[in-house]
């Protein structure tokens, strides 16, 4: 029998050969409903006995077969119903089992999928963490590269600016070099011209010397007459000296007392109003000094310690010359560092510097307090209280600057300013001033570093026609 996907085979018993035992217990409902055996039916036995005369055995056999067939048909019908019921329940059970199996399989597959999904999620999380870490490192490296790039760009920009600045400076220096070459070319031509003029002058002087030698020979012939005249003059001088001695003896004491001055301020106080050369007596010394007194400038009473006006005196001298002084007042001269020290150490003095350029313009620098130390401290400068018209800022070196000459270098520069700038001065580190530089004629247009200089009035070259340094008591 075929039912759905299942096939069933049933083996039925033969009626004639199967005889159930009396003790047989029917446990199956299908078997209980099966048709009884033909030979053992009691009703049939009794019916046979009553109708002995009825049909023959073939007829009985046929009836028995018909009855058995009917019973078998009913039994088959019940069997079919039973099979259908059992098949239906079995199919439902199989379906339930199949669904359960499929559900279990699906659950197992779901569990496996969840496990695999969790594993994949964990792996993805690890990968994501690694990617994030790598990304963070890359971001940090990118930031570092960015910062480095910024620094490099700034450095390149600075280098570019520096190169541009150096290029501009180089261009400026090239232009200045060309200007200097042109200027020094003109100066060289001027020097060559001066050299030619000096050679011409030397030739004229040589001729003049020859002429003088000839005149000297002629003068020798007249020496006897001159000797006689000299003897007469000598007698006259002796007579005059005798008269002067007599006059000095008459008023010696009061006159000596009245002529003893500490400085030009004392000379002015004594009633002298004219500028000129006077003798002063340094305080606490036995030394008398001849000085030039300016009685006109700013009330007078000024003792001149330095004066330049025509370049007739060489100021490029050594230490000892500047120590003791040189030149003669009222002409070009330096009073002497020892004298200036002794004079300004006796009391508080002020310093006045008068300047005149080649165009006749005048200016001055005034210092309320001024003095210099002795030779042991290299005549160190001390000034304060600046004022005046020769620049808004003082061109004189700062307090503490030491005096330097060409043979005694006391400045703060390794270049030896006294040799470079010439003269003796308080150079400090070459500084903005030097009134003892070389005196160049006012007709020269060439700026020279070793000339007279008062920077904050006229720049690196004063082209002065006159300079005067003078001192006076601060309380005058």
Automatic annotation (TrEMBL):
Tell where it localizes.
Secreted
**What sections of the sequence does the record tag as coiled-coil?**
163-215
Q: Which GO terms describe its biological process?
A: angiogenesis; blood coagulation
Say yes or no: keyword Coiled coil present.
yes
Q: Which GO terms describe its cellular component?
A: extracellular region
> Which PANTHER family does the record match to this protein?
FIBRINOGEN ALPHA CHAIN
Could you identify this protein by its name?
A: Angiopoietin 2b
Which organism does this record belong to?
A: Nothobranchius pienaari
Q: Which gene encodes it?
A: ANGPT2B
């Amino acid at each position: 029998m075929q039912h759905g996907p299942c096939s069933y085979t049933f083996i039925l018993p033969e009626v004639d050969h199967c005889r159930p035992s009396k003790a047989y217990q029917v446990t199956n409902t299908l078997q209980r409903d099966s048709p009884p055996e033909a030979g053992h039916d009691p009703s049939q036995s009794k019916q046979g006995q009553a109708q002995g005369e009825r049909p023959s055995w073939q007829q009985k056999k046929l009836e028995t077969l018909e009855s058995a067939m009917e019973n078998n048909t009913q039994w088959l019908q019940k069997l079919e119903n039973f099979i259908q019921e059992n098949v239906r329940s079995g199919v439902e059970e199989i379906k339930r089992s199949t669904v359960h199996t499929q559900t279990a399989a699906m659950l197992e597959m779901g569990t496996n999928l969840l496990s695999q999904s969790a594993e994949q999620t964990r792996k993805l999380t690890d990968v994501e963490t690694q990617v994030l870490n790598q990304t963070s490192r890359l971001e940090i490296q990118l930031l570092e590269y960015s910062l480095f790039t910024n620094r490099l760009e700034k450095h390149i920009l600075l280098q570019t600016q520096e190169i541009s600045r150096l290029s501009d400076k180089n261009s400026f220096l090239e232009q200045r070099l060309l200007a200097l070459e042109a200027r020094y070319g003109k100066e060289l031509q001027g020097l060559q011209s001066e050299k030619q003029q000096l050679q011409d002058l030397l030739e004229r002087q040589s001729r003049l010397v020859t002429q003088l030698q000839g005149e000297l020979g002629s003068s020798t012939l007249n020496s006897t007459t001159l000797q006689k005249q000299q003897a007469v003059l000598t007698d006259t001088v002796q007579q005059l000296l005798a008269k002067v001695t007599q006059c000095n003896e008459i008023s010696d004491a009061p006159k000596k007392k009245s002529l003893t001055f500490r400085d030009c301020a004392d000379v002015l106080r004594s009633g002298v109003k004219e500028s000129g050369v006077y003798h002063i007596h340094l305080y606490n010394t036995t030394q008398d000094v001849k000085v030039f007194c300016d009685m006109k400038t700013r009330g007078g009473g000024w003792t001149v310690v330095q004066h330049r006006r025509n370049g007739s005196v060489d100021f490029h001298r050594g230490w000892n010359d500047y120590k003791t002084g040189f030149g003669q007042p009222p002409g070009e001269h330096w009073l002497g560092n020892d004298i200036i020290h002794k004079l300004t150490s006796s009391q508080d003095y002020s310093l006045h510097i008068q300047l005149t350029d080649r165009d006749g313009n005048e200016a001055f620098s005034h210092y309320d307090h001024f003095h210099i130390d002795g030779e042991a401290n290299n005549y160190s400068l001390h000034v304060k209280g600046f004022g005046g018209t020769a620049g808004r800022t003082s061109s004189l070196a700062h307090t503490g600057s030491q005096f330097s000459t060409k043979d005694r270098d006391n400045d703060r520069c390794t270049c030896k300013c006294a040799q470079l700038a010439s003269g003796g001065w308080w150079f400090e580190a070459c500084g903005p001033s030097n009134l003892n530089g070389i005196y160049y004629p006012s007709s020269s247009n060439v700026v020279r570093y070793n000339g007279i200089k008062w920077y904050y009035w006229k720049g690196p070259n004063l082209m002065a026609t006159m300079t005067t340094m003078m001192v006076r008591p601060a309380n005058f």
